[in-house]
Amino acid sequence: MIRFIRRAAALSACTLLTLGLAAGASAQDVKHAKLGHSFTDAHPRAVAMKQFAAAVEKATGGKVVIDLYGSAVLGSEDKMLIAVQSGTQDLYLGALAPISARKKEFQIFDFPFLFGSDAEAASVLDGPVGRKLLDSLDDMSLHGLVWAGGAFRNMSNSKRPLNSMADMGGLKVRVMQSPMALASFKAMGMNAVPMAFSEVYPALEVRALDGYEHPVVDMYANKMFEVQKYLTITNHVYTPVALVASKKWWSGLTPDQQKAVQKASEETRAFERREELRQAADVVNELKAKGMAVTEMPPAELEKIRAAVQPVIDKNSETIGADFVKSFYGELKTYRATHK
User: Fold this and answer.
1) What is the pLDDT of residues 115-134, one digit of tens each?
2) Which domains are delineated in the chain?
3) Distances (CA, A) of 98 to 71, 102, 107, 110
4) How many CB atoms lie within 10 A of CB 171?
């Protein structure tokens, strides 16, 4: 009887060891990915990334798990992009302005008044020219998944309401770290300062900056109403955001896993855009309720701004590449011709 008990215990131990090894092997098969972005939890882009992570895990049977890091906890957008390039971060959601000095074609998104509507922007970004831009990231060790969303930018400041282009004169404002953005705002008469977004709120709080320009949803999500008094609706630039992966991480996925991640990113893109538009429709009233004075730049003054920045656009069209700019505007023309 004692011999039987010992034998049973040995078999049980062996079984447990086998199960443990199997569990360990299974755990090793799971591929974790670190996804970083700079948006707060309530922002539609952060909400969309939660949905993306859930869709990827479900589609891969739990073999690919996306771990989310929002609110710039992994660093500024330029630092996160560098980390994705090096493979120390696996995924990034955000603007690609930080790499536009190396990839000049991306500077076209800093052209003021490039897009006339959200639908127009989505159509072009999801078309051949948008795909070409994402594919061009390959030589930077980045894999472009999708243009995930985007929004029109507006002006805020702590000094005065902006009812004319002249009112912009001398304001010290933060702009994205892009040569085109810097030149454009200087042409409008402002003192443009390139700065990582993570540094903007403290700079506005101590009045090292007078203002900045950003989509209204982001202004509300980042509580800019605490440090900014005046909001002016200009819709002067549409900034798209992209979901990109480290080439190192992407190449480590199986073909089926790559298909699952790509499909999830495309499905999430549609959700993200809907959520951004839904929130943008309501958030201006929320900013008013928080004490911001909101005005719209008159159409005649917007025309003055267009005229002021046109030489910058012309010059940068040559820098970016005349053929590329022509193809981009060609897709815009096609969309406009079929959506009159």
Assistant:
1) 999 999 999 999 999 999 99
2) 29-338 (3.40.190.170)
3) 17, 9, 10, 12
4) 22
Beta strands in 134-227 (DSSP E): 142-157, 172-175, 191-194, 211-214
Amino acid identity, position 144: G
- Continuous H helices in the chain: 2-29, 44-59, 77-86, 118-125, 128-135, 179-187, 200-205, 216-221, 247-251, 255-289, 299-320, 322-338
Q: Give me 170's structure tokens.
A: 């001398």
DSSP lists the bridge partners of residue 295 as 232
DSSP tag of 215: -
> Residue 294 burial (CB < 10 Å; 0-12/13-18/19+)?
middle
Q: Which of 151, 134, 136, 129 is nearest to 244 (CA)?
A: 134
Q: What is the pLDDT of residues 248-306, one digit of tens each?
A: 999 999 999 999 999 999 999 999 999 999 999 899 999 999 999 999 999 999 999 99
Q: What is the DSSP letter of 298?
A: -
Which residue type sits at 191? Answer: N
Contact 233, 77 (CB under 8 A): no
What does residue 211 show for φ and ψ, rounded to 5 degrees?
-165, -175
**Kind and range of the H or E run holding 69:** strand 64-69
- Expressed in angstroms, the distance from the first to the final Cα of the chain is 90
Q: Give the Cα separation of 180 and 105 in Å (integer).
A: 11
**pTM of the entire predicted model:** 0.87
